[in-house]
Amino acid sequence: MQTFKIHHIGYLVKKMEAAKQTFEALGYLPEQDTVYDPGRDVDICFLQKDGYRVELVSPVSEHSVVAGLLKKYKNCPYHICYEVEDYESASAALSAAGFLAIDTPAEAPAMGNRKVAFFSGPAIGMVEVLLP
Ligand code: NI
Q1: What's the CA-to-centroid distance between 90 and ligand 1, angstroms?
Q2: Quick one: which of 14, 36, 82, 119 could link to 4 by a disulfide (CB 3.0–4.6 Å)?
Q3: Looking at the DSSP assignment, which residues form a beta bridge with residue 77?
C-alpha cells in the first residue's frame, strides 16, 4: 500500500516578503532563505510551525506556471504535497482516485533538487507528490 505522508501545504502569495513577514508574526520560522525556481519562474520559501510546514509560492513574472492561478484564486493555500516512496505506485493510486497528471516529475531547486510532480482531481483539486 502506497503511503502519502504530508510534507507541506503550498500557499500561493502575491507578495513574498509581506507573506513571509505575516507568517513570522504568527510564529512561523523560515527554514531557509527564499529560493528562485527558474523552471517554474517562482520564488519559494518554506516555514514551519507546530510541526506543520508551509511553502510560500510567488510568481516572479507573468510567465510563471502559477501566475494564472494567483489571478484566479488570490492569496490562498492551493496544494498539499505528499512524500511518497515510489512514484509509479503513487501515480497509479492517484489515477485510481480520479486524479490526472498535470506534469511529469521535475527537480525542485527549493527542495534540494528532489523531484516533484503535480496531479489534479475533480473533488479536491491539486496535489503534489515528492519523490524519494
Ligand atoms: Ni509544494
Answers
A1: 16
A2: 82
A3: 11
Q: Are strands 114-121 and 35-37 parallel, antiparallel or unpaired?
A: unpaired
Phi, psi (degrees; rounded to nearest 5) at 2: -70, 130
Number of domains the chain contains:
1
Q: Domain containing 105 — which CATH number?
A: 3.10.180.10
Rounded to the nearest angstrom, the distance between the alpha carbon of 82 and the centre of ligand 1 is: 9
User: How does pLDDT run across 9-37, given as a tens digit for each residue?
Assistant: 999 999 999 999 999 999 999 999 999 99
Distance 9 CA to ligand 1 centre (A): 7
Q: Distance, CA 1 to ligand 1 centroid (Å)?
A: 23
> pTM here?
0.94
**% of the chain surpassing 70 pLDDT:** 99
Contact 31, 49 (CB under 8 A): no
Count of CB atoms within 10 A of residue 103's CB?
11
- For the stretch 86-125, pLDDT in tens is 999 999 999 999 999 999 999 999 999 999 999 999 999 9
In the structure grid, which three cell numbers stand for residue 20, read together? 513571509
Domain housing 126: 5-130
